[in-house]
Amino acid sequence: MALIQIRNLARRYVMGSDTVHALRGVSLDIEKGEYVAIMGPSGSGKSTLMNLLGCLDSPSAGSYDLNGKDVARMSDNDLAEIRNREIGFVFQSFNLLPRSDALHNVELPLIYSGMSRTDRRLRAREALVQVGLADRLHHRPNELSGGQRQRVAVARALVNHPSIVLADEPTGNLDSRTGQEILNLFEHLSSQGNTIIVVTHEEDVAQHSHRILRIRDGLIAADESTGRRSSSVTVPSPHPPVLPPQGP
Amino acid sequence: MTLSDEIRESALIAWAALRANKLRSTLTTLGVVIGIITVTLMGTAINGINAAFRQSISSMGADVLFVGRFPWMAFDDWRTYRNRPEITLAQARELERLLTTAVAVAPQVDGNGTVLYNRRRASGVWINGNTEQSLSIRGLSIATGRWFTASDIVSARPVCVLGSYLAEGFFPHESPLGKRIRINDSNYEVIGVIEPLGSFLGTWNQDNQVVIPVTRFQADLQRRPDYSISVKARSAADLPEVVEEVRAVMRRIRKVPPGAPDDFAINQQDVFIQFFMAFGGAIGLVGLFITGLSLLVGGIGIMNIMFVSVTERTKEIGIRKALGAKKRTILIQFLIEAASLTLGAGLLAVAITWPATLAIDHYTSFAARMSWWIVAIALLVSILTGIVAGFIPALRAARMNPVDALRAD
Ligand SMILES: Nc1ncnc2c1ncn2[C@@H]1O[C@H](COP(=O)(O)OP(=O)(O)OP(=O)(O)O)[C@@H](O)[C@H]1O
Ligand SMILES: [Mg+2]
After folding, report:
1. Is residue A7 part of a domain?
2. Whose CA is closest to A112, among A90, A131, A87?
3. Which of the four, A93, B22, B125, B358, has the lowest number of CB atoms within 10 Å?
4. What ipTM does this complex have?
5. Distance from CA of A78 to the nearest CA of B (A)
């Protein structure tokens, strides 16, 4: 069974008498170890989908099975634990704590996973070094450039070694060199068997992935392989896809 | 994440949040500060009253009863007592002769008068007429000189014993012994000085007294004094038995017909104890009311500020939840923030009342005592106030849906 299996997933936002259909019934399987890019015009529902995949939001209709378990039936505590241990989320708007420095921001997931103070300090520092911010540990978000904030957000998403990385425009504010470094990081994680899902507007960023999902108006318009990895492409179907098991 | 980890992390977060809003935090805790000040002052007052009470009561002697014309605490109509005949010296002597269960019996009488020595003058002095037995009955000790002898009393010698306050006032640089002072219009020779006694319940100064033989009181101060008779039992446990005998003997002496009510009263210090228990209880009730009211007002202030804090930090809550904070974690975080606020208020209140108590103790005759348990109660009450007041706001924070919270700005 696929790691991520969604069926007819819909998300509506009711605003007074208006209803916005952000997602209109998406079905999708993503295998463990896949590297997926999601593309689509602004407002097409990419972030909405990411929030659902990241267990931050609940759908208006449809089902979402993660690792074979129905997310709708999980308790708040289970979901918190999944967000903490299984998922690394890079938000489109970073979502850093404004009053805390970079190090503490990166430490947060480790605090909630109960790691000791010294261990998590070490880990958080390591993660920041990895994204090239060794000399910005004690800067607060408002003392960092947009690109640096983005890198703090990436470091925070990766610090708990999540098996699923959900990144909403992780390279949007980065110059091509730093952007490339982040992409290399993702590629490395992918090669180690982690599942990566990246939202992007840039075609060449998407080309790093194995598979590109094109979303338009809350629906999947296209699902194509980039050829970088053999046959990891699946077509949504009511039956579990018949695929060779995905290894690291 | 263990609970102690969670509490430590939350305390750090709370501290940072409070520091970021110093003025607001201080202002909102004012109500709680007042509430806690009331708690501590009330505790201190009750403490002090108890201490003063114990001291004053012990000076009356737990094993002594006092036969008088009137009860100390009367709740009936005054007219039922008004026509009772006075207790005379002769009756006191008769009682002393007839009682078998008492170890000491002494008539006594007191009033106010003026004392003169060497152009110095003290008015409103407490003047006691005592006998040789009164020293042990009243639990007094002699600092210098001597107390009366039986013959001083029988022959009504013009001798007196001074309270320490008067002795120091009149004789700052010389020994009072052998000096002749004037009490109202008669001359007395000073034969002794009493050890300092302190004040009775912080009210009147017991060292501003002079004691003369009871037999002189009638001659020099009051023509028809109303005596009372102090009767000392072997121990406090013997008191009921002594009371019964005193009643029977006094009825005989005063010729009360059988079936008629007593025309005298037998007083014991326990009426004081009852009175002061009630008094302390009343203070406690009033204090409790004021405390409750200010804590309620203060608590509402805390609740309000916590709602503001939760609303302001909706996004922070969203971020923490997105990264794996559980409901419980967020709840504890905000409860600790509220409790830290009120604990700070409690500490501030203690910091205000502690020196105030010391000053009251030092500059007034009232013995104010602040003890560690009052501090402990004050701090406990402040923490509880914070937890109670912060609960609903904290619950609101804990229940937020992560994606909605993240969208706030
Ligand atoms: N909380 C909300 N309330 C109402 N409408 C919303 C809400 N969030 C998103 N929408 C609407 O849902 C649609 C999809 O939004 P979404 O954020 O998923 O777009 P997106 O594909 O991520 O766009 P972008 O590339 O600009 O980030 C948009 O039309 C948006 O206006
Ligand atoms: Mg988006």
Report:
1. no
2. A87
3. B22
4. 0.89
5. 9
